[in-house]
Amino acid sequence: MTSDNSLEIWVKVNAGASRDRIDGWMEDQLKLRVAAAPERGRANRAVCALIARTLDVAPRDVTVVQGPTSPRKRIRIAGDPVTLWTRLTALYPGSDLPAPR
Question: pLDDT per position in the chain (101 positions), as tens?
Fold first, then answer.
């Protein structure tokens, strides 16, 4: 889930939604919606941009590392994992996942 300089989370993406938004935690993954269609990487770019805006990090710091063609994706966010996790769980409480150390 973490390394010294990044945080990895699972997300469940609903592409082609009416607007971009994060719905909150669904078990071990963050559920979110993006308006972009799931074609030619558009939805993946929208997912990365949404997470970057939400966590106040640069878009280049958010990447899809697993599941680029699947609704379930593993996302890597560059930065201090404790700080990123604290921001994420402050905005969207309810995760049963342990906090990074």
Answer: 555 799 999 999 999 999 999 999 998 899 999 999 999 999 999 999 999 999 999 999 999 999 999 999 999 999 999 999 999 989 888 777 677 76
Q: How many domains does the chain have?
A: 1
Q: What is the value of pTM for the model shown?
A: 0.91
**CATH number of the structural domain spanning residue 12:** 3.30.1200.10
Determine the Cα–Cα distance for residues 71 and 32; give it in Å rounded to an integer. Answer: 10
Helices 81-91 and 42-55 pack at an angle, to 10 degrees, of 90
Residue 39 per-residue DSSP state? S
Domain membership flag for residue 101: no
Residue 60 lies in a domain: yes
